[in-house]
């Protein structure tokens, strides 16, 4: 039986000191322990080159999408108006408990339902959740919605995985695709004997991301790769 918001419950339990079992990602017989503390609870400062690059593209009002437990939002709200969203009510509650001033439950794939036209100067999405768009068409639809809620000349920084990188096959749950610049990831989470829904991610190379921006009101301005090479952050600009 698939359990709703198993992911949010595991992270909420971790925050409360009540987690007694690991959150496990499963891909067939392959498993890995999800590193909750490392991924979500580290303090964010502006000292690293990586963070300085991200900050150089952002301004307020800022929308932080898929904000997790709000570590980035806590950092940015000291600089400008920041709205942090998660689809999980448990994660929204955790953000508020941690001091995020404007944490909102919202679906990043239905942004015009939750926000006003031209509301934000910048948007940020860390953690490759945008890959849940599922297809080139889904990515175009997401970018089009993003254009609706952002101001002219707005900017965005979004996480992706590059399936054309030579080490992309190391990604947990990776599935190859013969289509140029595209691939998949597929896995689900397990926690305390419960099973979460299967997550299907579509991976886009920078070239395919650039293709997807055509007609959406965005252009790809820059990318910044992480140390492993296949993970990259894309800086987009409204046109």
Give a verbal description of the structure.
By secondary structure, the protein is α/β, with parallel strands linked by helices. The protein has one domain (6-238): 3-Layer(aba) Sandwich (Rossmann fold), CATH 3.40.50. The chain is built from 7 helices and 13 strands. It has helices spanning 6-16, 36-40, 49-56, 71-76, 89-98, 136-149, 206-213, and strands at residues 24-27, 30-33, 62-65, 82-86, 103-105, 120-125, 150-161, 174-175, 182-191, 194-195, 199-204, 218-225, 231-238. The chain has a 7-stranded mixed beta sheet with strand order 5-4-3-6-7-13-12, sandwiched between helices. Strands 1, 2, 8, 9, 10 and 11 form a 6-stranded antiparallel beta sheet that branches. A hairpin with a 5-residue loop joins strand 12 and strand 13. The chain is globular, with a radius of gyration of 17 Å. The protein starts with 5 loop residues before the first helix and ends with a strand. The mean pLDDT is 96. Keywords: Methyltransferase, Transferase.
Shape designation: globular
CA-to-CA gap between the ends?
46 Å
Largest sheet: 7 strands, mixed
The SSE string, one letter per element, is HEEHHEHEHEEHEEEEEHEE
Structural Rg:
17 Å
- Report the average pLDDT across residues: 96
Low-confidence stretches: none
Under CATH, the topology can be stated as Rossmann fold
**Number of alpha- plus pi-helical segments:** 7
GO molecular function, one term: S-adenosylmethionine-dependent methyltransferase activity
Pfam families: Methyltransf_11
Protein name: Type 11 methyltransferase
Keywords: Methyltransferase, Transferase
């Amino acid at each position: 039986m698939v359990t709703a918001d198993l992911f949010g419950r595991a992270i909420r339990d971790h925050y409360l000191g009540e987690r007694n079992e690991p959150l496990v990602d499963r891909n067939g017989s392959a498993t890995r322990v999800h590193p909750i503390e490392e991924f979500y609870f580290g303090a964010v400062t502006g000292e690293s080159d990586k963070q300085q690059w991200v900050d150089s593209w952002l301004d307020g009002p800022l929308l932080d999408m898929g904000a997790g437990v709000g570590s980035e939002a806590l950092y940015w709200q000291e600089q400008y108006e920041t709205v942090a969203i998660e689809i999980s009510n448990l994660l929204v509650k955790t953000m508020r408990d941690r001091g995020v001033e404007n944490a909102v439950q919202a679906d990043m794939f239905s942004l015009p339902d939750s926000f006003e036209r031209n509301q934000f100067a910048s948007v940020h999405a860390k953690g490759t959740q945008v890959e849940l768009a599922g297809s080139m068409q889904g990515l175009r639809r997401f970018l089009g919605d993003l254009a609706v809620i952002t101001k002219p000349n707005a900017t965005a920084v979004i996480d992706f995985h590059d399936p054309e990188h030579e080490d992309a096959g190391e990604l947990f749950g990776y599935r190859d695709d013969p289509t140029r610049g595209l691939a998949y990831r597929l896995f689900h989470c397990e926690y305390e004997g419960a099973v979460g829904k299967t997550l299907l991610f579509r991976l886009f190379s920078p070239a395919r991301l650039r293709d997807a921006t055509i007609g959406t009101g965005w252009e790809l301005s820059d990318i910044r790769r992480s140390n492993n090479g296949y993970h990259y952050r894309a800086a987009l600009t409204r046109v």
